[in-house]
Write a structure and sequence with these properties.
alpha/beta, SH3 type barrels, globular
Length: 461
């Protein structure tokens, strides 16, 4: 589907690709953007229309990928799929490298700025309220900016957001709260999500030594022996450990393992089960839960400011809806299943087409060369970003008439002062073309785009 705008660039709705090509051939429409595909209908004014369809945006946030789905409210049709690829890990890696370099320079007393710690061990640069690490803010800003951008192109009036919440005290010590969960439609789904997060997607009996990737809900005291389905009796085990344990209790299983032959798998099981019986809590990093809580609040505040009212849902509800509709595990399908889902499901008008946007950044502030010790030995002068009217990140169409790369290529350009540019095509290939053979399709916005035509899993009209 193609986004349609009126002559004042106000949102009209969606139209099919065929309809957009016909209007462009008749000179009634022009291409406005390539990613996402949008056209301007020159003989339409939104103020002359009696009514416009309303749309709902559904967002499934993640630390590495975020899924977005746009559905039409009155007809329950899916009009657009999108996946945002974040660069939070790249930002964190760059900050770690900078921190280690600065620490090394301070130890060698070659620092280029004073330390931000006073003699008393306090910060001398107070962070403002609501400060977030750059890696977390990068992810949140990607979600917020794309929501605002899509709202500018589409008449989005409602929003659904998967508000992932983690009780970090409960993750560290389950005994601080009651053991009863509210029984309902999501009973079991929420517990499984909780177990995966609490135990870090790792088998608690072998620590991953078995190599079995299938993880199951394990009752430490089997139900056949009087064990309950409460969280205190729940653990996470791989399928091979769960079957090997059977209906034995942990002390019985430990004694049986000690009598068996010595193998690396049995040794790992003895070690981990002994730790469980001694009362040790599982060693699971809480970085993801802290990130989810911080990023959720940041994005939620922005979404409430944009829409006024946002439907917030849980991850258990999303998984339940996806299982009920029989959809595969993917980010855009997770976004479609966020919040309330019609009883009969949705009708797909995208034919399985998914827009991918990978955050690439807008360049680095550092201009220079360093030696093996991290000392700057050469500083470059800051030059213009645009070369021959092009800037790194622009989407171009290169028509190479002759040579090794003869043909028509479309992709993201990387400029050079010589006038010979590198073009990274949508299929991953890299070609070299002269600036005179390139034509700009879309200016740089800090993202790399491509379309993925996956198999349609919903009913198509």
């Amino acid at each position: 589907m193609v986004i349609a705008l009126d002559k004042h660039k106000k949102p009209l709705g969606f139209m099919t690709e065929r309809r957009a090509r016909i209007l462009m051939d008749k000179k009634r429409a022009v291409l406005y953007r390539k990613y996402p595909a949008a056209v301007i209908v020159k003989d339409r004014d939104v103020r002359e229309l009696p009514d416009r369809p309303g749309y709902r945006i559904k967002i499934d946030p993640g630390s590495a990928h975020t899924g977005i789905a746009v559905v039409r409210i009155d007809t329950d049709e899916v009009m657009m799929y999108m996946q945002i690829h974040h660069r939070g890990q790249k930002v964190k890696k760059a900050l770690d490298t900078r921190r280690m370099t600065r620490r090394s320079r301070r130890q060698r007393e070659t620092r280029y700025r004073r330390c931000r710690f006073s003699k008393g061990g306090r910060f001398d640069c107070a962070r403002k309220e609501g400060w977030l690490p750059p890696s977390v803010r990068s992810v949140g800003d990607n979600i917020i900016n794309w929501t605002r951008k899509l709202k500018r192109y589409i008449n989005i009036t409602e929003c659904s957001f998967e508000a992932v919440r983690f009780d970090q005290q409960l993750l560290a010590d389950p005994d601080i709260s009651g053991e009863e969960y509210q029984h309902g439609t999501l009973f079991g789904t929420e517990i499984r999500e909780y177990l995966l997060e609490r135990f870090g997607h790792t088998c608690q009996y072998c620590g991953g030594e078995s190599g079995d990737a299938v993880l199951e809900w394990e009752h430490m005291v089997p139900r056949s022996r009087g064990g309950s389905s409460s969280v205190k009796n729940a653990s996470l085990a791989c399928r091979s450990c769960n079957r090997d344990k059977g209906n034995r209790t942990l002390p019985e299983y430990l004694e049986a393992l000690k009598k068996n032959s010595r193998t690396s798998l049995n040794d790992a099981r003895v070690k981990h089960i002994t730790r469980i019986l001694e009362g040790h809590t599982p060693f699971v990093g809480e970085r993801y839960s802290a990130w989810a809580n911080a990023c959720r609040r940041y994005v939620e505040r922005a979404l409430f400011g944009i829409f006024g009212q946002v439907e917030c849902s849980s991850g258990g509800r999303t998984k339940y809806n996806r299982t009920r509709l029989g959809l595969p595990k993917d980010h855009h399908y997770d976004a479609l299943c966020v919040g309330t889902v019609p009883e009969g499901g949705y009708r797909d008008r995208t034919c399985g087409c998914v827009l991918h946007a990978e955050a690439m950044g807008r360049g680095s502030r550092f201009r220079g060369l360093t030696n093996s010790c991290g000392i700057i030995i050469t500083k470059f002068k800051r030059g213009p970003k645009r070369r021959f009217g092009f800037m790194t990140g622009d989407i171009v169409r290169a028509d190479v008439r002759s040579g090794k790369y003869a043909g028509i290529h479309t992709g993201r350009v990387m400029v050079r002062t010589t006038g010979w540019f590198d073009v990274r095509c949508t299929n991953g290939a890299k070609i070299t073309a002269k600036y005179s053979d390139c034509r700009i399709l879309q200016r740089s916005c800090g993202y790399k785009f491509w379309y993925d035509h996956a198999q349609c899993m919903l009913t198509t009209m």
